[in-house]
Design the sequence.
């Protein structure tokens, strides 16, 4: 069970370093400088925006006071952190980094590359992430993970990596690794939403507090009981999930239409060239 050692009833009692984690800010800054020095000239404006958004979100959920609030006080904030970490940051990173980088480091004949290829098979990626995500929200597992710093880091690292592999089949920038048609991508997103629903429903409709980790914690805000906080957490996860999936579906449809228009244009040009050949007089 999670022990709330050194937890204050007021955020003002925390030090600047505890609230704002300068070390996380430094790591985010270094990652940003590295990205722009290495990829700044070879990336589009959209890719740059995606990486900047990913870095800002990482600092917001891991380096700002949100980190302390979510870990020690409000389950709803913890769920928002989960949604951002697993549903928003991986797709932003996949889109933001050039395809050449992924080709160089994720494809080859080594065991590492073969493991990546296996884990990004659509069905495996879909089931693996959602299974781990659902198991995490079982009260016994949740309390065990949040009660041990070692288990916390191990489980969340694995969950983040599987979130990355879950998003890869839909957003892969590498043409040779494109395993899904546009229609199958749409089905994949809907399937993901269905598989995530039970965990959210468990939290939203529970008539008692599920997690001992958030029992007896100091109440920063008096307008919400712990049970209401739990319900809000499930709702927030579901809302963010739906918004992210809607955005990704919009991106899929946009690329689909663009691809079809390009194909129609090429077909029309091919027909025009054929007609010119036919119309040429025979000498």
Sequence:
């Amino acid at each position: 069970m999670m022990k709330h050692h050194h937890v204050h009833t007021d955020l003002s009692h925390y030090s600047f370093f505890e609230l704002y984690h300068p070390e996380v800010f430094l790591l985010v800054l270094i990652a940003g400088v590295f990205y722009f020095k290495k990829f700044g000239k070879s990336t589009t404006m959209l890719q740059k925006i995606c990486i900047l958004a990913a870095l800002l979100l990482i600092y917001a959920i891991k380096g700002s006071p949100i980190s302390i609030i979510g870990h020690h006080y409000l389950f709803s904030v913890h769920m928002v952190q989960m949604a951002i970490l697993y549903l928003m940051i991986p797709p932003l990173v996949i889109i933001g980094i050039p395809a050449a980088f992924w080709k160089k480091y994720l494809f080859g004949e080594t065991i590492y590359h073969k493991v990546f290829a296996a884990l990004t098979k659509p069905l495996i990626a879909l089931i693996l992430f959602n299974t781990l995500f659902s198991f995490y929200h079982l009260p016994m597992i949740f309390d065990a993970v949040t009660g041990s710093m070692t288990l916390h880091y191990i489980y969340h690292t694995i969950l983040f990596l599987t979130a990355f592999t879950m998003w890869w089949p839909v957003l892969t920038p590498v043409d040779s690794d494109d395993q899904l048609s546009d229609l199958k991508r749409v089905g994949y997103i809907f399937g993901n939403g269905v598989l995530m629903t039970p965990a959210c429903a468990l939290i939203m409709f529970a008539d008692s507090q599920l997690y001992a980790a958030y029992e007896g914690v100091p109440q920063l805000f008096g307008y919400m009981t712990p049970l209401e906080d739990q319900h809000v957490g499930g709702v927030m996860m579901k809302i963010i999930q739906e918004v992210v999936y809607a955005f990704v579906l919009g991106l899929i449809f946009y690329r689909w239409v663009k691809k079809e228009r390009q194909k129609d244009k090429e077909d029309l040009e091919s027909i025009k060239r054929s007609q010119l050949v036919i119309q040429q007089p025979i000498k």
Q: What stands out?
A: The first helix runs from residue 16 to 20. The CA atoms of residues 28 and 55 lie 6 Å apart. The mean pLDDT is 90.
